[in-house]
Specification:
alpha+beta; Hypothetical protein af1432; Alpha-Beta Plaits; four-stranded antiparallel sheet; 11 strands; about 50% helix; rod-shaped
Amino acid sequence: MLLVALTFVFENYGYAGALAKNEAFISINKDLAYRSWGASHGGVYVPITETTPPNPYLAHLKNRDVNTTDNQRLTLMNGAYMLSQMMSKYSSLYGNKGHITSKKLLNPNNKPDAWEDKALDIIEKTRKPFYEKSLIGNEEYFRYLNPLITETSCLKCHQHQGYKVGDIRGAVSVSIPMSKYYKDAFSHSVLNCAVIGFIWLIGMGVILYSRKKIKEAFENKIKDYEQHLFSLVNVIEKRDSYTAGHTQRVAKYSVLIAKEMGFNEEKIDELYRACMLHDIGKVSTPDSILLKPGKLSELEYKIIQEHVVVSYELLKEVDVYKDIAEIVHYHHERYDGSGYPHGLKADEIPLLSQIMTVADAFDAMTTNRIYKAKKSVRLAILELQELASKQFNAQIVNAAGKVLKNVVLEEAISQRPLSTLEKERFSYFYKDQVTGVYNKNYLEFVMAYNYTDEFRFKCGYGIYLKNFTQYNKKYSWEEGDKLLKQLGSTLDDACKESFIFRLYGDDFIMLSKKHIEIEKYINILQSILVNTNIDLVYKHIEIDNPEIADIKALEVLL
């Protein structure tokens, strides 16, 4: 805006010079027209008065003064003399200075000043008007000098000076004071600047308002986009009920650590967004691997590691997530270089990725996982400290120890399927495909967590089928499976509050939180086994003991 204002000021002051030139041009041409009229009549006789005395410089003319028939005394006013008197009046009225000047003076009062002397030399050569700005005293004037060309009518008064027709015998000089034009230029400049400033303020207001609206629209678009992605992450997490809420907790822990380490709000926000999306690549991980309760094979482990690369590839293609894609890409790298996907170590790993690594590990330690109960906050921090400078950055572990020691862990996530959908997913790993009751894998998990509030089974009942092999041989394996399925579904339907497991081929185990009358269920099963030559035996044991924490301990008692 300043440049525009200065441009207007410059233009206004330049225009002031143009206006002064125009006034000088008009003034001289008006004067010359008046002089030309007077000269064309050979001069004009006017009454002699105080303001129009006889021209002393025409005394050499015999008929300068004449008497009229009524004895009125008249004097000859030639063009130059009329012009000189008019210019004198004009100067007193309007401030414009003008007079006739020449190198050969007829009137000593018309002696040229220094500027006019220089200008007369120039027009003698060019025979054209000359003009420029120049000082008279301390004031600036626009000065204009127009040449006077000798005509026949001029010789009446000037022939005795030696001029011939066509000679330049002098010039008409006019000087226009610039002060009034500069004053007008200043006023216009102030007005123009005020108008420009007003327009600029309005424009800036519109721009700022538009930018605000565009920014709000862009931020809302990003928020909507992020919300869709966060929803997708939630869907991914719900595939694995054991890690539900994992991303939110990792984001929470990471932010606490980053603040303790002195990161600014921009970097903390960047880290938070990265944490919220760090497992988005699990959308490509098959359920058979993601939900597998047992130890992963080497191939399965390599497949689940691919979720990091998939997350990176998804995020880097979106402009607003390019900054967090790198953080996500390296959050499974380890300080000692034993991580994946690239085996980076120490400072090769982005610091924000290292913070997420510590937060991710802390959440894994303090969350119930299959066959592995959660650690307390104190024990989890101790384990982080043991792995400092090995798996984790020691500086980050130190900060984590300070801010995570007071974290209140969420209630344990239920390991049992609750909704119909969860039950169907659950059955993939934990339901026996023949009988429909729970399998040995889930029995192993239940025994590992039997001392928690979620289970706390008190009684166990072993149910064994004798001679089942002979039944299979006699009626086929398919018929044997049908019988096992009937027995399993009967137990499951009859014992709603108990858990039924098929341990081995023809053995079942029932776990209950209270003592039950097992005999009535045995009678129901025996009624199914009539005429099958299969014998049924059972045994009751008390399992409300933390030492009974796996299948081996259970088998010893059964």
